[in-house]
């Protein structure tokens, strides 16, 4: 019975041997419960996602066994690749908007584990047996429900790691074959792409605990010479957060006048440029104000994935300052673009 908390993965640098390997999907993790006509879509935190994806509720009723619990990912594809931005737009408070988006940008569910079937809980059953049952019950499943590809061949997993990024996927998940299902434990392994980029540090937000740096605001220049906000770097010790305030003090501006992101508080300005503080349903009443810096300091950061080629999908990891680089040289042109790969080749 819901809620069930999904089993999680811990990051490792390389694909380990002797595992079951799957793609790492870039969507909303979801536990799907079906009991006859009743369908519930549970999020990673256990909160229901059911009302936001009526098309998946209908598909689950039609395409999966009458009584089962599936672990998987809700994803949304556009032009042959995953589109996380479009997926986040599906979380909307208005029922009319939810129904419109369900028709305009329908989602899919990719199943990669089976937690219960009929009267039997499978949480203590090893992965290889759960996978065999999953393949049997979804052998003829049709879109928008999909069976996630899996392999025990490490060489195939290496190929997936290189190819699937072009379809918008995050990397590879490795699962021990004898692993029972462990709720909310990091019992699996995730291998994600990591690249570095030189970025302009053009501002920072204060930490919730006081007047120290919470996150650095990062920018890259586009082909037209405009500095676009591409993400943040935030994982610092408290000592380092205090040091950063001192290091960046000479670049601090009295206000945002004259800053490339001066229009950040104007909601209309966000329609034509990437600026910090973009309004969204996710931010709620969160303080999005920031301290502007003269855009002169360059940092090297590590990142795993670009969203739509315009921003870092996740928080970037600070590596070092780059005093040898000028801010103007930090452009999108330095970023490695993965070779496109059609998502339909993965899902069939």
Automatic annotation (TrEMBL):
Transmembrane segments: none annotated. Residues 100-222 form the ATP-dependent DNA ligase family profile domain. Keywords: Ligase. SUPFAM superfamilies: DNA ligase/mRNA capping enzyme, catalytic domain, Nucleic acid-binding proteins. InterPro entries: Adenylation_LigC-like (IPR044119), ATP-dep_DNA_ligase (IPR050191), DNA_ligase_ATP-dep_C (IPR012309), DNA_ligase_ATP-dep_cent (IPR012310), DNA_ligase_ATP-dep_CS (IPR016059), NA-bd_OB-fold (IPR012340), OBF_LigC-like (IPR044117). It holds the Pfam family DNA_ligase_A_C. It catalyses: ATP + (deoxyribonucleotide)n-3'-hydroxyl + 5'-phospho-(deoxyribonucleotide)m = (deoxyribonucleotide)n+m + AMP + diphosphate. Its EC number is 6.5.1.1. GO terms for biological process: DNA recombination; DNA repair. PROSITE patterns: DNA_LIGASE_A1, DNA_LIGASE_A3. One of its GO terms (molecular function) is DNA ligase (ATP) activity. Belongs to the ATP-dependent DNA ligase family. PANTHER family: DNA LIGASE 1 (PTHR45674:SF4), DNA LIGASE 1/3 FAMILY MEMBER (PTHR45674). This is DNA ligase (ATP). It comes from Streptomyces poonensis.
């Amino acid at each position: 019975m819901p809620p069930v908390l999904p089993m999680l993965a811990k990051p490792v640098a390389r694909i380990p041997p002797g595992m079951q390997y799957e793609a790492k999907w870039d969507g909303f993790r979801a536990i799907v419960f079906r009991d006859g006509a009743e369908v519930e879509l549970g999020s990673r935190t256990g909160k229901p996602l059911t009302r936001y994806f009526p098309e998946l509720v209908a598909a689950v009723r039609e395409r999966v066994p009458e009584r089962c619990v599936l672990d998987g990912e809700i994803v949304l594809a556009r032009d042959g690749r995953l589109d996380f931005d479009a997926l986040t737009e599906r979380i909307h408070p208005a029922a009319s908007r939810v129904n419109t988006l369900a028709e305009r940008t329908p989602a899919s569910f990719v199943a990669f584990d089976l937690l219960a079937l009929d009267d039997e809980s499978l949480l203590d059953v090893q992965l290889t047996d759960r996978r065999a049952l999953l393949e049997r019950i979804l052998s003829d499943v049709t879109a928008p429900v999909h069976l996630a590809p899996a392999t025990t061949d490490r060489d195939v997993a290496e190929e997936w790691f290189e190819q699937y990024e072009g379809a918008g996927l995050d990397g590879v998940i490795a699962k021990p074959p004898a692993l029972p299902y462990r709720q909310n434990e990091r019992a699996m392994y995730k291998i994600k792409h990591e690249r570095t980029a030189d970025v302009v540090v053009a501002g920072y937000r204060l930490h919730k605990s006081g007047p120290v740096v919470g996150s650095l605001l990062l920018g890259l220049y586009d082909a037209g010479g405009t500095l676009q906000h591409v993400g943040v770097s935030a994982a610092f010790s408290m000592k380092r957060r205090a040091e950063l305030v001192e290091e960046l003090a000479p670049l601090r501006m009295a206000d945002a006048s004259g800053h490339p992101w001066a229009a950040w508080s104007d909601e209309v300005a966000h329609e034509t440029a990437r600026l910090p503080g973009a309004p969204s349903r996710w931010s709620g009443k969160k303080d999005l104000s920031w301290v502007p810096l003269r855009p002169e300091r360059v940092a090297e950061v590590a990142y795993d994935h670009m969203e739509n080629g315009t921003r870092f999908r996740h928080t970037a990891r600070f590596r070092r300052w780059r005093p040898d680089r000028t801010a103007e040289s930090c452009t999108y042109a330095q970023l490695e673009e993965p070779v496109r790969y059609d998502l339909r080749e993965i899902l069939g």
